[in-house]
């Protein structure tokens, strides 16, 4: 990837990954026909679709791109005949373990080399308390067999780690569990599960308390089919926010970006750095706030990233580190130790990738310090190990857009997990000319 001469135009990003997974899962549990428009057709979401089909749902993509789902009803999931291949997707794995946990079925979960290293103990613990049984690979890893139980036992569980996946796994298990299942979230994480479960008709309440957000779902629930419009993914838009900020002369508008406040930490952080981001046409689409974002090149300054932003930008740290590499001064991000258990260890991966491109980075156990150029080109000229991690591949592609020497990815294929048209969009903006 070479430096971009200009970066101009109007683009749309694909559907939100978190909302796409949940659209398929909840539609597959509703009785009747649901329709989903704007579904992200990335590998992670397709893994969820295949798993829901393997457990009995009828899921069809129409020629017009609308997905039509006939669900089996809560409690109606069938025993899958073969192992569920989750590919690279942590969200599919952890949320589906929650669904299986309260059904009288057994499912084996497998995944790629990256997913097979990721910790599953965080869902095994609460779901075991609900009565599910697990046969895992040492260290709580995949491959793993999950034996669900019905009726499962409702629990009251305080999340030990800020994770929307763990929260969602418990709430999904609670759907088919008689009584009240409660998750207490000391630190708020993305709330798509709560919004969508309520939208599908589940009896769910969210109450603030001194301990945090108290989320209670009452089972056994009946879900009503829905028509869903999936907003564009802010985590995908983040690449263009940073790209346009660092490439001189850039002027990019990204349309239809999800602006759920539990997801917009990257916009707040970039604005603190001096980014020129304008929100246009704020509106509500499918129950979620959405806006178009116009981003123009601007000089960036280093910040200390407020740790309270962490959950609302957890997937955006790799590209934030790229912004930091072009900012004036040393940006410091702490309180983000979760980055070490994503598709790769994203702290070490980005420290090594940016380091190989001549950027000074200092790793902390829970974050990183990055010293930027003040807007000048970074040296570049390295080949980057993408480590089966889509966000490392895309972040380093953005880093290349204003580098002195080309930056090469050893493997660009991981991009397809969350953003299959990423390189097409880069071409559309004039970066590959
Ligand atoms: O619930 C979700 O859809 C997600 C939650 C986050 O993971 P954690 O729950 O592990 O923080 C995030 O990193 C992931 O991309 C999607
Ligand atoms: C962490 C991510 O996804 P998942 O956990 O679903 O693999 C991500 O998309 O950055």
UniProtKB/TrEMBL annotation:
Instruction: Note the Pfam families from the entry.
Output: EPSP_synthase
The record's GO CC annotations read: cytoplasm
Q: How does it assemble?
A: Monomer.
Family that this chain belongs to: Belongs to the EPSP synthase family.
Instruction: List, in alphabetical order, the Gene Ontology terms for molecular function in this entry.
Output: 3-phosphoshikimate 1-carboxyvinyltransferase activity
Can you tell me which residues form the catalytic site? 315
Q: Name one GO biological process term.
A: amino acid biosynthetic process
Q: Where is the Enolpyruvate transferase domain?
A: 3-426
The scientific name of the source species is: Sphingomonas pseudosanguinis
Keyword Iron-sulfur found = no
Q: Which pathway does the protein contribute to?
A: Metabolic intermediate biosynthesis; chorismate biosynthesis; chorismate from D-erythrose 4-phosphate and phosphoenolpyruvate: step 6/7
Q: What is its EC number?
A: 2.5.1.19
| Reaction(s) catalysed by this chain's protein | 3-phosphoshikimate + phosphoenolpyruvate = 5-O-(1-carboxyvinyl)-3-phosphoshikimate + phosphate
Query: What is the role of the protein in this entry?
Result: Catalyzes the transfer of the enolpyruvyl moiety of phosphoenolpyruvate (PEP) to the 5-hydroxyl of shikimate-3-phosphate (S3P) to produce enolpyruvyl shikimate-3-phosphate and inorganic phosphate.
What the entry lists under InterPro entries is as follows: Enolpyruvate_Tfrase_dom, Enolpyruvate_Tfrase_sf, EPSP_synthase, EPSP_synthase_CS, RNA3'P_cycl/enolpyr_Trfase_a/b
Q: Which UniProt keywords apply?
A: Amino-acid biosynthesis, Aromatic amino acid biosynthesis, Cytoplasm, Transferase
Q: What is this protein called?
A: 3-phosphoshikimate 1-carboxyvinyltransferase
Database matches in NCBIfam families: aroA (TIGR01356)
Q: Does the keyword Amino-acid biosynthesis apply?
A: yes
Xref: PANTHER family? AROM/DEHYDROQUINATE SYNTHASE (PTHR21090), PENTAFUNCTIONAL AROM POLYPEPTIDE (PTHR21090:SF5)
Q: Where does 3-phosphoshikimate bind?
A: 17-18, 22, 163, 165, 315, 342
What subcellular compartments does it reside in? Answer: Cytoplasm
